[in-house]
Amino acid sequence: MANAAGASEEELPRASSADEEVVEEEQIGTVNERLLDYRSLNLRRHAPNNTSQVAIVGSNLCPIESLDYELVENDLFNQDWRSRSRSAILRYVFLKWTFCLFIGCVAGAIGFFNNLAVENIAGLKFVAVSNLMLADKYWTAFAVFAGSNLALLMFATVITAFVSTAAGGSGIPEVKAYLNGVDAPDIFSLRTLAVKAGPMVHIGACIGAIVGQGGSRKYGMNWRWLRYFKNDRDRRDLVTCGAAAGIAAAFRAPVGGVLFALESLCSWWRSALLWRAFFTTAVVAVTLRALVDVCERGNCGLFGKGGLIMYDVTADNITYHLADLPPVILLGVIGGILGSLYNFLMLKVLHIFSQVNEKGCTYKLLLAATVSIITSCCLFGLPWLAPCSPCVKDDCPSIGRSGSFSNFQCLPNQYNDLASLFFNTNDDTIRKLFSNGSNDDFHKSSIMVSFITSYVLGIISYGVAAPFGLFVPVILTGATYGRVIGMLMGSNTSLDHGLFAVLGAASFLGGTMRMTVSVCVIILELTNNLLLLPLVMLVLLISKSVADSFNPNIYDLILKLKGLPYLEDHVEPYMRQLTVSDVVAGPLRTFNSVEKVGSIVHILKTTGHHAFPVIDEPPFSSPPVLYGLILRGHLLSLLRKKYFQPTCSLAGSNHASKKFVADDFAKRGSGKQDSIDNIELTAEEMEMFIDLHPFINTSPYTVVETMSLAKALLLFREVGLRHLLIVPKSANRAPVVGILTRHDFMPEHILGLHPYLTKSRWKRLRFRTSIFTKFFRAPSI
Amino acid sequence: MANAAGASEEELPRASSADEEVVEEEQIGTVNERLLDYRSLNLRRHAPNNTSQVAIVGSNLCPIESLDYELVENDLFNQDWRSRSRSAILRYVFLKWTFCLFIGCVAGAIGFFNNLAVENIAGLKFVAVSNLMLADKYWTAFAVFAGSNLALLMFATVITAFVSTAAGGSGIPEVKAYLNGVDAPDIFSLRTLAVKAGPMVHIGACIGAIVGQGGSRKYGMNWRWLRYFKNDRDRRDLVTCGAAAGIAAAFRAPVGGVLFALESLCSWWRSALLWRAFFTTAVVAVTLRALVDVCERGNCGLFGKGGLIMYDVTADNITYHLADLPPVILLGVIGGILGSLYNFLMLKVLHIFSQVNEKGCTYKLLLAATVSIITSCCLFGLPWLAPCSPCVKDDCPSIGRSGSFSNFQCLPNQYNDLASLFFNTNDDTIRKLFSNGSNDDFHKSSIMVSFITSYVLGIISYGVAAPFGLFVPVILTGATYGRVIGMLMGSNTSLDHGLFAVLGAASFLGGTMRMTVSVCVIILELTNNLLLLPLVMLVLLISKSVADSFNPNIYDLILKLKGLPYLEDHVEPYMRQLTVSDVVAGPLRTFNSVEKVGSIVHILKTTGHHAFPVIDEPPFSSPPVLYGLILRGHLLSLLRKKYFQPTCSLAGSNHASKKFVADDFAKRGSGKQDSIDNIELTAEEMEMFIDLHPFINTSPYTVVETMSLAKALLLFREVGLRHLLIVPKSANRAPVVGILTRHDFMPEHILGLHPYLTKSRWKRLRFRTSIFTKFFRAPSI
After folding, report:
1. Range with the lowest mean pLDDT among A79-88, A311-320, A457-466, B112-121?
2. Which of A101, A779, B342, B472 lies 20 to 30 Å (CA to CA) from residue A118?
3. Nearest to A639 by CA among A592, A688, A672, A590
4. Which of A559, A592, A620 finishes a domain?
5. Both B580 and B550 in a single domain?
């Protein structure tokens, strides 16, 4: 309490020397371990002793920035708002929906062509390999198989490493962080979009963000009339729609896409957005439908039924009764355990791999090559151990066809069941596993081996610095896992193994990603069988509950590992014991409403703050009052345009509106902010004044200094703030005593200031066995 | 601005004399018209001239109350929080999930037995009628038909009128208002639950609310260890889960139920709730499954395939191409127009009927009887005009069976298609209409007549004071409408008429209720055919867009008509031109932190405010500071327990915690609040003091007086507040200058204070033709 005032420590630039960082017990091991791709952008932490507060700003690195979902209601905005013509509003609305249409079309098309490429490339590979195997050229077959795998992965790794490192991984954690208000560098650039192949959520979000930026300035694509969208709020909406479109395109699951965005990605939501996201995914569905129509005329090479995941395993006669519940419950419980173990192992591997990847591009490539060769060896080597079975089905054995049973080393008229699982695209394999009436197609041992292989390979592949998704590997592993359980049940259950595979996939998705409604709908949209619904729901509920008692979901783990300051949606219990003034630290920088240019420049140069409270002092007001909040970006605009006046007096807002249009203050795309270092001012100009009044946001959100931290966090998160001002509770003080930002709500920061609270906090990132964690979380906000 | 301070005018008691009400231009016609069932509870409006500010409190009428989703963080709460044992937390969590389990089971069972009853009663009726018709006893048949209809409706009307008027209608508007923070009287009582039959959303919400109240005090069901749930926040969660369970039980649509709650009912949502609502609906699905299993053994009378809406019209071969889009788009456009017209007519009829219903129970019964007889005449009379068709299908003609084609006046081996639509339960009729390959079963004229009849009867039935739902009539009307369009298309389309019926139902749902994702999922879960998805989405998008340009959805219209102060989720443009101090009115009542009993009693008796800011003044603090907010309910508890002290001094929180436990301050169920009139104090006691400190919420949310109204509304709504304090911007003023409540954000109130803003506001309740409305809304928050 008292006079402790807050430093707006938000921009998080390179912490180049390790001694600037305070190692807290919550970090995993050492500082280095948390760095990964974002190592140069890591959170610079407040030291409890309040030293080294001032950030080094103006470096040419892209910082992790917070986003501001609040409108800046300053005089200029209000004038603009009032004078907005009907046609401007119509254009805005028209554009908004056009963007959604565009995002839907593009995401649908990209999803389709992605799939087309995968089906054709992978299909060609498998056909070539099986032909060689048929001709007994085993070593050549291996060479072709391993060689093509290696070439593809090296290509992906090289473009990721040299064009856009942000394109690595699934991208979902970054999208999630963005929608929470954290702008990781370069995640939504055209480069990233170009490199990205596969994980559709990130692709969709990229399309949304790029559309919202009004093209890319760098590549000369910039339409002036898109300026209304140049704020974080509209961009966030477009990114949300894009992410929903991504899932819809990946799984042909339009409703699932909307729900995924709602359940897993978004931190804020409103019903108008539901409506637009739904429109976007509907467009995706129509686009896909139209493109598939074209393909059905047979112009798409190997793209057949396998294209675009849609397993459509029609089994009208699925019946189940209460007696079938125990095996299903068991499936859920084990799925939850395996899922949380998957998360745990994934984190460990990511951790080790990131240390390797950090050492440079050569290491990245070497790692990718190693992973590729191990994968090839496993996939090619293990089927030799599997027994051959006589063919009974139509599509067996496969000669020159993809998607069917594989002959491998067996005699003609026989098939190798393990090879049939490995030498197919993921989509085809999953369809095989989901199929009804195929209980006897696979040996118990083959399914076991296949499960272990996909579990392990899924974990080690993701750490490679290439664009890999998580969804399909998890579904594949889950499906094999389900079959394993089905086989172990033997005659104790009457349920089909194909049904077990579907439920296994659900339980594994629930165990790793912890989504409920969206996974449920996606599974339904994938299998096109609504009768499964109650069982899928049950399995998801159980596996999520079990897994939640061990660790958080995989995306949150990766988020933490990457050091992105994600604001949780629940309140830690100790936050109720603190007031807002307990967590602010460092000196508060304020401006007068008419301020000298020199002091503005000085403060901008010596701090990294993104916003400054402005005080109206005598002669403009007596006593001093809080006039509002001004943003760094706006101050830079004023300095660049040299909006100066010789004396300390009011200039009036008419003057300002003549000199500036709203576009001057529009927020640019991520990573394109101005720097104070680029502005040159003469000594004479430094002695002049700026009347800040017309540019100040006169409606900043405030809390009284005695407000509990828990409630301030609720406000901060629900309204989507970037800055929250603290006002004094009594009258004889300065009108503003501090400023809270995202950083001040981070548990690491709070526990750094109040180490005695640590005991009341439970460890989140550790692999825990305490089932109580979930219970403790529940009663909080 | 300046010193205008705010009156916390929240409790909205009977405005007994009409002159107290200020007729505003936004009201529909006269004051009387807005009254309906809630006429005695209508909003008392602030007169612009600030007269008659003080409400008459203490009457024995149940007021419409606001809800408070914020935690009261006072000393007692904090002590309780810190000392909460692990077992208490575990019990809380355990109870929470048990409640959901319980709600799911009960809602599933009620849904099932509701349906069972309907199937059997309606089935018996139709069988009796068709047997009489077969015996050529036409007048007897009519007498039986009309008589049973009349008896059933009279019974429903009588119990509604005499036991619980709140059970009338669909209940969805009331649930929606509750989740927005408006507690209409008696909506969630045991009486209401007992009377309610049919509309499952309200039933589910009732179960949730009653469970959360820890039983009903009135009926002696009260478990003390449920006290943790005695706050609005937990009750809201349970009501949400209950409403989701209701939809799930009504339509066997668990995912649709969750989405309906999310999209249409809730004003606030968090992901933890998604998770619990999902669990609840999963339980519903399992319960239903188990009960249907029992019925399949044939113990349920006429409850056969018709029971529990699940149309399951399996048509695997639905194909459609881009060429089929124009008729579908046309269907959507006309559906939107018809849907908004339905809303408009419904409102007019409700309006007229409510005037009749107001006149007393006799009128209610007369009205119900009239409606019932008109309905019977239509349904029995119109089929005489329909031609007979020769039987070609298995289930034709029907003798002693429900759910099949009806013989009516035709020869044996013939059927009357219109009678087949009328003389079946709604479920059976809808299944008939949705069926594939039945293009030639119905004559064009019969479908047309059926459409017009169900459109008109749907509108007039809802106004009767009995528990009627909206969903099924709307689906039925929509399905006939779809068939009409399909028939009019003739050979211009290759789509099946059953598909047209499904799309028609979707478009009509979109046109009246304006839901998107949830209707989409419900339709999918009803028809069990995912291939329909893109078409359903398209139709919904179009019909909603078209209808939105005319009027709001039916629930919002009914909400407005009932005078419930619903807080919209968007900001009206004029709110950006106002600051919070522009809308507060009337004198502010505050307490000192140690206050005289007499003044507390006086203020409680003379105002209806629900919370009072407390100021720490000398000698406890110098200068005066805002200490927090105290609730009326807490003050009443203090007065009742006579927590008095002889002098004006601090008592300390230890003293308080000895005398009070958290349960003393737990919020009771709706309509069970204490009254100051029930507390008797001696003249001596009136001279004593109370130290309020331990009972004051020290973390009330505040805004500075210059905050724009739009931003304050955002805060108010997103955080779920009941009171929002206004603090001064400068230091030389009282530490709190006003208080904002829900009422202050109501457009009627604001425009009453600032009539000049009216021109910038567009009329919401009128039947509008301006498509621009939607466009104007969009750019706002």
Report:
1. A311-320
2. A101
3. A688
4. A559
5. no
- CB contact, 8 Å: B97 with chain A? no
Q: Cβ A730–B727 below 8 Å, yes or no?
A: no
Interface test with B, best of A517, A522, A541, A774 (most B CBs within 10 A): A517
| Within a domain: B10 | no
> What CATH number did the domain enclosing A773 receive?
3.10.580.10
Give yes or no: residues A350 and A439 share one domain. Answer: yes
ipTM of the complex: 0.82
- Give 10-residue mean pLDDT values along chain B (781 residues): 37 34 31 33 33 31 69 78 75 86 93 85 84 85 92 90 83 90 82 82 89 60 64 87 92 86 84 85 84 73 52 56 83 94 92 87 90 92 86 63 70 82 83 80 89 92 83 92 90 83 92 87 75 82 90 89 85 85 85 90 88 86 85 88 84 73 64 73 89 88 90 89 87 83 88 78 39 35 27
Q: Clarify whether residues B60 and B112 are in a common domain.
A: no
Q: Establish if B699 touches chain A: CB-CB under 8 angstroms.
A: yes
Higher pLDDT residue, A554 or B39?
A: A554
Closest to A272 in 3D by CA, of A108, A99, A96: A96
Chain A hits for B256, CB-CB cut-off 8 Å, are none
Q: Do A731 and B735 touch (CB under 8 A)?
A: yes
The H-or-E segment that residue A545 falls in is helix A533-548
Residue B307 is assigned to a structural domain of this protein: no
Domain-terminating residue out of B513, B528, B561: B561
Of A71, A516, A707, the CB nearest to B275: A516
Domain containing residue B430: CATH number: 1.10.3080.10
For residues A254 and A284, the answer to whether their CB atoms sit within 8 Å is: yes
Range of the domain at B112: 87-296
Strands (E), A652-759: 689-691, 702-704, 724-727, 738-740
Does one domain contain both B489 and B587?
no
Q: Within a domain: residue B316? A: no
**Do A731 and B733 make contact, defined as CB atoms within 8 angstroms?**
yes
Q: Helices marked H in A671-732 — which ranges?
A: 683-686, 709-719
B62 and B114 both lie in a single domain: no
Q: What domain count does chain B have?
A: 3
Residue type, A656: A
| CA gap B592, B595 in Å, rounded | 5
Judging by DSSP bridges, how do beta strands A594-596 and A689-691 pair with one another?
antiparallel
State the Cα–Cα distance between residues A144 and A148, nearest whole angstrom: 6
Chain A interface includes B521 (CB < 8 A): yes
Residues A377 and A502 in one domain: yes
Is A541 close to B278, i.e. CB distance below 8 A? yes
Q: Could you give the CA distance from residue B700 to residue B693 in angstroms, rounded to a whole number?
A: 14
Does any domain span residue A394? no
Bridge partners, B579 (sequence order):
B708
Any CB–CB contact under 8 A between A722 and chain B?
no
Which residue type sits at A610? H
What is the rounded distance in angstroms from the CA atom of residue B631 to the CA atom of residue B647? Answer: 23
Q: Under 8 Å CB-to-CB from B663, ≥6 apart: which residues?
A: B224, B227, B230
Sheet of A591-592, strand order: A591-592, A611-616, A625-631
**A518 and A471 within one domain:** yes
Cα B207 to chain center, whole Å?
14
Cα of B428 to nearest chain A Cα, Å: 21
Q: Are A578 and A715 in a shared domain?
A: yes
Alpha-carbon distances of B627 from A2, B593, B617, B698, B700, rounded to whole Å = 15, 7, 9, 6, 9
CB within 8 Å of chain B, chain A residues 331-360: none
- Mutate one of A729, A756, A759 to test the B interface: name it (highest B CB count within 10 A): A729
Residue B662 in contact with partner chain A when CB distance is under 8 A = no
